[in-house]
Amino acid sequence: MASRSNTKFQKRQKELARANKRRDKDERKLQRRSEKVSDGGGPPVEAMDPTDLGLPAFEEEVAAEEAEKAEKTEAV
């Protein structure tokens, strides 16, 4: 009979450990969410410079496309 109560005790300890671990995970999850909301997710889009990202400026792309179209029409 002694082993039976020991088994119940061990099972209860495991259940408590699982509950504590779940509670800790939930607390960390809430903390990450609050950090993510307060962080703002990075700089505003207006503040980003496309040349910093290695991308050509939009005006340069449009000018290049227009130049290509002009070359094609001149060739015809």
Could you give a short description of this structure?
The chain has 76 residues and is mainly α.
Protein described:
Helices cover 74% and strands 0% of the residues. The model has no long low-confidence stretch (mean pLDDT 79). With 76 residues, the chain is mostly helical. It is built from 2 helices and no strands. It is rod-shaped. The protein folds into 2 domains: 1-42; 46-76.
Uncertain parts: none
Helix content: over 70%
Summed up, the domain count is 2
Task: Round the Cα radius of gyration to an integer and report it.
Answer: 31 Å
Q: N- to C-terminal separation? A: 100 Å
Largest sheet: none
Beta-strand segment tally: 0
| Percent strand | under 5%
> What structural category do the secondary elements indicate?
mainly alpha
Number of helix segments?
Answer: 2
Order of helices and strands: HH
Task: Tell me, rounded to a whole number, the average pLDDT.
Answer: 79
Shape: rod-shaped
Keywords for this entry:
76 residues; 2 helices
Produce the secondary structure layout:
Elements (H helix, E strand, L loop, with lengths): L1 H38 L18 H18 L1
